[in-house]
Amino acid sequence: MNRRMITAVFLILLTSSALTRGQNSGSCVTDVILSGYSARMFTSEPVSDQDLDLILKCGIKAPSSRNLQPWKFTVVKDTALTKSTIGNINPGNVLIIVSGPESQEGTIVDFDCALATENMSIAALSLGMGARIYGGPVKNVNSTMRQSLEIPEGYRVVTILRIGHIDKSVDAVSAASARKKFEEVVNFKK
Ligand SMILES: Cc1cc2nc3c(=O)[nH]c(=O)nc-3n(C[C@H](O)[C@H](O)[C@H](O)COP(=O)(O)O)c2cc1C
Asked: How many whole angstroms from 133 Cα to the centroid of ligand 1?
């Protein structure tokens, strides 16, 4: 093979690997997102303080409107409290209750809190754990459980994130909920 041919082969390999990377394979972050699902089946293995700290730091790192970081995170480990918050829950699971200022209900603060929640959810998945966001119990928690959960004064709950270890035998593909088709959601403007 002469020099020109070697260069041509090298360029073909380089281009095809770039195309493949763009289309089919991703980073560890995109892999976690694309293979993730909202867990239902948790085990009772406790979440370590080290993992919990890392997850919370990922929540704190979330972007927010004007960088106001309006959230407060209330971490609940006590099984009696976690059970009365979302019902059927395993010991060892942790709830991270994400709250925003009461005075700004229904504003962009809720959006900020949602981004922090999703950051923590993805962090938990990336550490090999499961996570599930809960909106259903929020109304009840705000009206009856703020004191017992020690939600900071002047704040109301926006979302609740459950994290815990998951049964690794659960098939992630069948546990995942289907998504709408790409073409149904994405429109490339011509
Ligand atoms: C804002 C929000 C609120 C949710 N509330 C609940 C809830 O109250 N109870 C529940 O079991 N799942 C809840 N979920 C989880 C969704 O049902 C789940 O993300 C959705 O069905 C997609 O499933 P997947 O994440 O496994 O793909 C909530 C998710 C979001 C984003």
From this structure: 6
